[in-house]
Structures are given as C-alpha cells and as structure tokens.
Amino acid sequence: MVNEVNTEPTGKKDMPKTSYSKPTIGATGKTGSWRTFDPIVNYEECNRCRTCWLHCPEAVISIGEDDYPVWDFDYCKGCGICAEVCPKKCIEMVRTSDSIGDSLPVGGSEG
Ligand code: SF4
Ligand code: SF4
What is the residue with the minimal CA distance to atom 5 of ligand 1? Predict the structure, then answer.
C-alpha cells in the first residue's frame, strides 16, 4: 500500500514492504567492484530515519538490529543517492582509493 512508506515505523517489523530484490552474484560477479566512491556514514549524526535504505536503487542498504543502516559493499555502486537524500547529511562520498581500510560503514566490505 502506497501510504505505508509515509508512516513512521518504530521498529523493523513496521518497515514498509518494498518491490525490489536483494542483489546477488551474477555473471559479472560482485558488482561493487565497479564503485569509485564509497558512502561513509557518520553514525554519531545518523538519526536512523531509513531514508537512505528507502532510496538506494541497488537495495544494498539494510537495517541492522540496532536500527542503524548497514551497507553491502559487495554490490553498492557508489552512485551517491543515499548521500544526496540523507536529511542529516551524514553520508559522505569518499573516493574508494582513499577510504579502503579506513572507515567503511558497519557491515561493509571491500567490493
Ligand atoms: S551509493 Fe548508491 S548504490 Fe551505494 S548505498 Fe548509496 S544509493 Fe545505494
Ligand atoms: S538517511 Fe542518513 S540519517 Fe537517515 S538512516 Fe540513512 S544515514 Fe542515517
């Protein structure tokens, strides 16, 4: 139901259903290797609003047990949409060569 995305969920069980599928390995392998920029989150600023999760076109953001967003860097393309829509502006796009081994978000891995 369209209105579900406009409600304010209080926990994972209240999150709206989505029509997209989780990415999985295909003929081109783990497509996160295409990425040239990494979304790096400042979790101290994140208010767990889930806007990034809702808008990611690759469906690589999930919500962790603590309700903070978690990235799957095996498939994130680094498009920057999550950073653009984040109301707290707490996602910074950092060139991949500068961020590897530095501060990838919780649950992230190198693509
Ligand atoms: S950079 Fe793009 S693909 Fe990666 S998590 Fe953000 S919106 Fe999704
Ligand atoms: S959009 Fe920004 S503030 Fe909201 S959950 Fe994502 S990182 Fe946190």
Answer: 76
